[in-house]
Protein 1
Amino acid sequence: MNMNLNGKTALVVASSQGLGKAIAAELVEEGVNVMLTSRSEEKLKRTKDEMEHSGKGKVSYFPCDITNREEINALVQKTRKEFGKIDILINNAGGPPGGNFEKFEDADWQNAFELNLLSYIRIIREVLPDLKKDGGRIINVASSSIKQPIPGLILSNTFRLGIVGLSKSLAEELAPHNILVNTVAPGRIATDRTAFLDKMKAEQKGVTTEDIEEASKKNIPLGRYGHPEEFAKVVTFLVSGANTYVTGSSLLVDGGMVKAI
């Protein structure tokens, strides 16, 4: 299958670790020039060093707090200056704090909104002029909670669904410009975020993290957590030239965990 990605430029958000890092690495392997970004310059430098000799694409980085509009603008300008026109946008962000409804005040809801929804909106707005030139791809990374809410993650459950509404609306609006927009939702993928949530749940229940992992695996038909690379391969297909007709979709990568149709 011809992925037709060589020489393209991608901005991959929250890409110094976890799913963002895995996506960036897969794109570099396919010859994409990738701009990495996160708040930690130390992690970004280390990630760049790991990637720049592992694939055909070039790698650069620029630290950015994606809750800050001015820093987003600077990130997009840096990407254009480094690589030229942006062809692919991977919107991604770390999850908000866990907890139930009564735990959170207005500031918590505002912070989660700015990190997990408004940041996506702002980045798309800045990148859109590039994508409209010759078409492009937008992936908005969400969570399996878009199909089945996760207990104890009410902030994530709320704003991840907002991502779906955004993606679906944009898919229709931007189709005349040959811009494909999709949401990709991870289930239990073996990342630091998943490990943190397992640890938090273990502490709440007074059991070991291993107990939580085993219980989770029993709810996954494939019987294991996914690997970040498996998630990244799905995203890579969707942003590639091999995908010419999938847009407005919300795709779960969860090993069959979510039972909703």
Note: The CA atoms of residues 96 and 155 lie 6 Å apart.
Protein 2
Amino acid sequence: MMNNLDDMLLFAQVVKLKSFRAVAEQKGVASSVVSKHISRLEQHLGVQLLIRTTRKLSLTEAGEEFFQHCQQLESGVALAEQAVSQHAEQPKGLLRIAAPMISGQYFLPGVIDQYLKQYPQMKVEMAIKDSFQDLIDSGFDLAIRTGTLSDSTLRARKLVNSRWYAYASSEYLELHGIPESLSDLEGHNCLEFHYQETGANEWPVTVKGQPDSIKISGRFQASSLVSLREAAVSGMGVAFMPVYLVRDQVSNGQLVPVLQEKIYRDVGIYAIYPNIRYVPRKISAFIEMLAEAYEEHCCAFH
């Protein structure tokens, strides 16, 4: 069987180069050796594939049809070799990452440090933006994103679920009162996050186990969750934010959860990368390392 496969690949080369001699020189063997392999293949198939003259080499009708299949085989072999080489290669080159501020400032640096130590031939470039980047057009290898994936040209690897709650400072709550129900939020300055699928003046939440959204109003809007956190700490209002971002501020008493039993949000954090058949080793290696890190610290997100 293996001889037949080798002979088929050799046949495809002969057809493409239109010469036994050219293939023989490429392989470093005599022309008679190439001819012998093609004759063995024809004998196995029971048909003539090539018409040989002193001046020309042409395909028979059966040879033409067989050549199409040999090309598919050749392509399959190349893809298989590429797939295996992705695992064998030592990643090298540049990895470009797009990440939101929370991941980029607080979580990814440790993973990147580990990645660069393990793969000394790699460099990493990270752009920190809370807005979604067009991965392919912007030239990024992967991005960290929250929420659902709608672009079919991309793949997503879920890393962790991130829990969100409403928070305010004790000073703010002493001045304006503690909201006891969702309707109480209407009388509060609710800080608005610009990058939300529902818009800045709505909080996408879960109420009684069902997805919902709450209309809010406030006097401060930001495109950065870190800015909203600092505004809430300073007593500016109530902000809806991920647990991971405010764990230190809650621990030291700067922020207090609000309506924790009433509203929350669970949102997936994903590694997004191009939807290609064989993902380059530099990307797959980083995603595996990233997934392990998120799994190890998953409790910090709830």
Note: The chain has nine helices and 13 strands.
Protein 3
Amino acid sequence: MQCRFGDKIKFIPALLLVCCLLIPSLAMAGHGEAKPVKKGILLAAFGSSMPQAQASFDAIDAAVKKTFPGVPVYWSFSSAIIRDVLAKEGRIVDSPAMAMTKMMDAGFTHVAVQSLHTIPGEEYSGILETVKAFEGMPKGMSKVTVGKPLLYTNDDMLRTVDAIVANIPKDRKAKDAVVLMGHGTPHAANIYYPASQNYFSKVDPKIFVGTVEGSPSLDDVKVLLKKSKSKKVYLMPYMSVAGDHARNDMAGDEDDSWKSELTKEGYKCVPVLKGTAEFPQVVEIWVDHLKVAFKHLGDH
């Protein structure tokens, strides 16, 4: 059958219409279709350069993997100083930004980030700002959520107090004092430390909270210790790990350590070198915060 020239002219518009309909769908098949949902968890700690602190991180890692079986878990340290120290020792730990970049490149679409900090201070705020920047980035992640640090709500405070009291050495007598060393910060979130003192006092009048770099100070603690009439003092970190501050500033042999200063004032000091992350009841609080963050990821 012969096809006349006129028939060809009539056929061309129909062909163009088919092409116009097909080309966008072909393009979408290659580029525009939604990526399959891939969920992951990023744990963000301040970090520590002390090998002994690894026990705390291992405890958290095990608890998270038990609670979220099959979900990939990545780690990061927010402290650049600690990452640099570890790098010189040949151990590379990612910053939160680098860990998120790697997760993005690996195709994760939904990431729950859990802050392993004690208070919502500078470190927590920095992580929040950094990781949320990956949400909605071109070829980035669909959803990023961030779990609250250890101390955030009234319930967190109550649970943390109970957890720490439950982990005070059993040989401590009622007349003995317990001094908790927190980090302290110029950030407004430092208020959580004097608040902690208030919460602990209601449970045990001989537990005192001080900080290395904030308020209350060791001098504030000394005033309360004197009033307590205690002769023996248990020194414990109010930090996730028993790292440099705990081993040197709190329990070190230098003249300006808390142990040395209190010993000079006549107290018998008993350092307890365990970070709060080594207490299962404390880890449970972080995991509960991560459960909330993970739930809020959704599936879209």
Note: Residues 5-32 form the longest helix (28 residues).
